[in-house]
Design goal:
The chain is α/β, with parallel strands linked by helices. It is 45% helix and 12% strand. Helix 3 runs parallel beside helix 4, helix 4 runs parallel beside helix 5 and helix 9 packs parallel to helix 10. The longest helix is centred in the C-terminal third of the chain and has 23 residues.
């Protein structure tokens, strides 16, 4: 198993899942837009997610909320640079959340090891950049840019036949293209894309059937943090979705997710710890 996979697997085995802590250096992200847009707050956010127990720091300079405008590469680079430098200085495993090959190259050249691509390889040059640096490439399933979504969790219900089967097929096609571009197969990781080109029902069904997707990817990544599908179950604003986030993370971990992308690192790590501790007596009894 490749070193990056082994590193994630080691933490996931110990904790139930490894945690990817979100650092949005954007003014317009749906939950924390503007909170970490300056150097001091961005560096403090990196410290906070690492001190809370994140195994990966995911840094992004462009919002992926529905209708968000594209951000030029140079502006993304200016936004992410302080957080990236801080995370690398602390020896963190860094993911760059971008669909831009230029931004990915900048980050990988300076120590990032993972590219988090929410376009499902919409730009093949991104795969070439990942291959050049022998980086892991998280391909988040989507059927186009988020600008195509009219609102949060608003997507035609009939656009999928069986959402799990369709997502798997389309993701495997993107994976095969990435491998053809030079990315090692063990470095192509799946994120089923909760909320990306999907309505709430699609996202909830994917969450409930993650065990059907886990065998497809060396590392199954799931990002339920504060997302709008939670409000379909309990009407709520992003600020009120911590409980739903924690529940979704526990479900995802039970169904095979090895890396959870969240804003609330400490709370999710704590929930995983309680879940794991509660199983130890039963596991010990079975072992005996």
């Amino acid at each position: 198993m490749a070193e990056l996979c082994a590193r994630i697997e080691s933490v996931a085995t110990l904790q139930g899942a490894a945690i990817m802590g979100v650092v949005n250096t954007t003014p317009d992200s749906f939950f924390d837009g503007g909170r970490y847009a300056d150097r001091v707050s961005a560096e403090a956010r990196v410290d906070a997610v690492l001190d809370a127990g994140a195994a990966v720091v995911d840094i992004g300079g462009e919002s992926s909320r529905p209708g968000a405008p594209l951000v030029p590469p140079l502006e993304q680079i200016a936004r992410i640079a302080p957080a990236l430098a801080r995370a690398v200085l602390r020896g963190a495993l860094v993911s760059i959340d971008t669909t831009s090959p230029e931004v990915a190259h900048f980050a990988l050249e300076r120590g990032a090891r993972i590219v988090n691509d929410v376009s499902c390889l919409g730009n093949e040059e991104l795969g070439r950049v990942a291959a050049r640096f022998d980086a892991a490439l998280v391909l988040t399933h989507a059927r186009g840019p988020m600008s195509r979504m009219s609102g949060f969790s608003e997507w035609p219900d009939a656009d999928y036949g069986d959402v799990v089967v369709d997502v798997r097929r389309e993701w495997e096609a993107a994976r095969d293209r990435a491998v053809a571009l030079g990315v090692r197969p063990e470095h192509v990781w799946m994120d089923p894309g909760l909320g990306f080109s999907k309505n709430a029902r699609h996202s909830l069904e994917l969450l409930g059937r993650l065990d059907e997707l886990a065998p497809v990817s060396p590392v199954l990544v799931v990002g339920p943090g504060r997302k709008s599908f939670i409000s379909a179950v309990d009407p709520s604003s992003p600020a009120e979705r911590l409980g739903g986030t924690v529940a979704a993370c526990l479900i995802a971990a039970e169904r095979g997710a090895r890396l959870l992308r969240v804003h609330d690192v400490r709370e999710v790590r704590q929930a995983l710890a309680v879940s794991r501790a509660s199983r130890r007596p039963r596991e010990a009894a079975h072992a005996g």
